[in-house]
Fold this sequence. Notes:
Blueprint: H1 2-15, H2 18-36, H3 43-58
Helix pairs in contact: 2-3
Amino acid sequence: MRFSWLFLSVVVVFLLNGCFLTKVVTVPMRVGGAIISVVPICGETIDDAIGGAADLVDKVPL
């Protein structure tokens, strides 16, 4: 039973491309940046920085 779950997990990991795996990381970053962007004065700057970091993570070759 345990082997079948392990095998299924390995197959799923190999079938998923890197784009999906980076989206798992960057979507919460972008949501957090959007929430922070409502802060007066510095919110938009922080959102731009988080968005830039998320863009770099999206470009990671997996």
